Amino acid sequence: MLRDAKANRQLPFIPIVLPLIRPGLLTAAIFAFIASFDELITALFISGARSTTLSRQMCRTTASKINNQPFLNMHHSRKRENAKAQMPNEG
User: Fold this and answer.
1) Is 67 in contact with 75 (CB distance < 8 Å)?
2) What proportion of the chain, given as a percentage, has pLDDT over 70?
3) Containing domain of residue 54, as a range?
4) Which residues cross the membrane (predicted)?
5) What is the dihedral of CA 73, 79, 84, 85, to 10 degrees?
């Protein structure tokens, strides 16, 4: 039908095909996440304290990057300053 209207091959993909395959893509993404997360848990339990697997290193790197965000550090330091300002003076 769209071919009769001289539409190119990619035109029907977004409005027709993408909505049809969206549930499958979402399911595949969820399964891929679960499989990779399971790999991390297995590496954490099986590997020793001294060994570093790729999964463990990726987890450490991600956690350290999250903890070193300037905005979060600024936010927490302001919370500490506000808490100190609200404390009564001793002495």
Assistant:
1) no
2) 63
3) 13-86
4) 20-46
5) 120
